[in-house]
Amino acid sequence: VQLVESGGGLVQPGGSLSLSCAASGITVSEYDMNWYRQAPGKERELVAHIPIEESDASNADSVKGGFAGSRDDEKSTACLQMNVLKSEDTAGYFCNAWRYYGGRRYDYWGQGTQVTVSS
Fold first, then answer.
1. Strands, E, within the chain: which ranges?
2. Ordered per-residue pLDDT tens for the chain, 119 residues
3. b/e string for 19-32 if b means 16 or more Cβ within 10 A?
4. Long-range contacts of the stretch 73-78 (C-beta < 8 A, 24+)
5. Torsion angle of alpha carbons 67, 114, 85, 32, nearest 10°?
């Protein structure tokens, strides 16, 4: 199983970035997809939850109005659109695929992509 994030980089405050997560080795339509972030010295934070039923997607309060998660099961991808970025959004961003099936939890992570918001 592989989750590969892309799209991170350096952006000025107020700018936008779109992150992508390409999954292989799993049937994405069977998994909840999530985006987490972790800044140095801070705990990992869930920023976008994109369940199998995409209409139930939700975002953390800290990013509401600015971030939106989405998924394309046919392409085995998940995306995180980030708008109106702030310096406090600087962090490593990680894609996660999760499911609970047959009494077992399946939990997969990407290697992360760095987002730096700075002028």
1. 2-6, 9-11, 17-24, 32-38, 45-50, 58-59, 67-72, 77-82, 91-101, 104-109, 113-117
2. 999 999 999 999 999 999 999 999 999 999 999 999 999 999 999 999 999 998 888 888 888 889 999 999 999 999 999 999 999 999 999 999 999 999 999 999 999 999 999 99
3. bbbbbeebebeebb
4. 73/28, 73/29, 76/22, 76/23, 76/24, 76/26, 76/28, 77/20, 77/21, 77/22, 77/23, 77/28, 78/20, 78/21, 78/23, 78/28, 78/33, 78/35, 78/50
5. 10
